[in-house]
């Protein structure tokens, strides 16, 4: 199963990708997570990406395409994967088509999730992460203090620099300029499945599963 989840930041791609990854037992490939791990490990990539990410800008296509080539060709992706956060530019989408044809992937689902800007700002500005185990929380729904309920680490809950309101607004502007045109690209090229991302997480998963289970929706 090959799934590309596409949509604005904060729409719930990561949450849905995690659920689908467990259900289908295929890896959740989040380019944001790959970059954050590089930053945590202080690798050369991490050092280059940090400032760009904190400012809410996009890391260069060259770097991202290299990461994708390497990741998607790795054995863990041999039976499928869920992409979250890639592609983010038309060029990345074109290069992804090439990677897919090199890997012989010709079927899959391109799922576009969308919600209004105000809801994105509300969700992202309330998002919190655990430094220790990577768990995601949201102050809108989760009762948390500084201790991570999942791993128990103290003082591990923090707000991503790019989840601060001013940076969120910048990310949304960049999304509209650079990433949204991909919707048109996929719509012209193949079938795009659009899902309304408002409401309950489980309901949105149900909607995704419903379209995945309709074979005519295979998109690539
Ligand atoms: P995310 O966790 O998907 O919201 O990504 C966090 C940040 O990582 C983005 O705001 C970008 O700075 C960077 N990033 C992640 N994926 C990409 C990509 N495909 N192309 C360029 N930059 C990316």
Give a nutshell description of this structure:
The protein has 220 residues and is an alpha/beta fold.
Description:
By secondary structure, the protein is of the alpha/beta class. It has a domain at 2-26 and 79-124 and 179-212: 3-Layer(aba) Sandwich (Rossmann fold). 47% of the residues lie in helices and 14% in strands. The protein has 9 helices and 8 strands. The chain has helices spanning 13-24, 31-40, 44-54, 61-72, 90-103, 117-125, 165-179, 181-189, 201-212; strands spanning 2-6, 28-30, 81-84, 109-114, 127-130, 136-138, 157-158, 193-196. A 5-stranded parallel β-sheet has the order 2-3-1-4-8. It has a 3-stranded antiparallel β-sheet with strand order 6-5-7. It is globular. The protein starts with a strand and ends in an 8-residue tail after the last helix. Bound molecules: adenosine monophosphate (AMP). Adenosine monophosphate is lined by residues 9, 31-32, 35, 52-53, 56-59, 64, 85-86, 88, 92, 162, 171.
């Amino acid at each position: 199963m090959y799934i590309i989840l596409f949509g604005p930041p904060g729409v719930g791609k990561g949450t849905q990708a995690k659920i689908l990854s467990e259900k289908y037992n295929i890896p959740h490939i989040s380019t944001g997570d790959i970059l954050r791990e590089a930053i945590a490990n202080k690798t050369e990539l991490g050092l280059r990406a940090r400032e760009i990410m904190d400012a809410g800008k996009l890391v260069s296509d060259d770097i991202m395409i290299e990461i994708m080539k390497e990741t998607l060709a790795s054995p863990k992706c041999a039976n499928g994967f869920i992409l979250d956060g890639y592609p983010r530019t038309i060029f990345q989408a074109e290069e992804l088509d090439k990677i897919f044809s090199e890997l012989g992937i010709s079927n899959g689902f391109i799922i576009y999730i969308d919600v209004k800007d105000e809801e994105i700002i509300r969700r992202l500005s309330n998002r919190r992460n655990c430094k220790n185990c990577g768990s995601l929380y949201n102050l809108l729904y989760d009762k948390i203090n500084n201790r991570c309920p999942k791993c128990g680490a103290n003082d591990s809950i923090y707000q991503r620099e790019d989840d601060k309101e001013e940076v969120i607004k910048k990310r949304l502007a960049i999304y509209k300029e650079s990433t949204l045109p991909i919707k048109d690209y996929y719509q012209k090229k193949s079938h795009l499945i659009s899902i309304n991302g408002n409401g309950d997480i489980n309901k949105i998963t149900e909607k995704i599963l419903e379209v995945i289970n309709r074979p005519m929706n295979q998109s690539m």
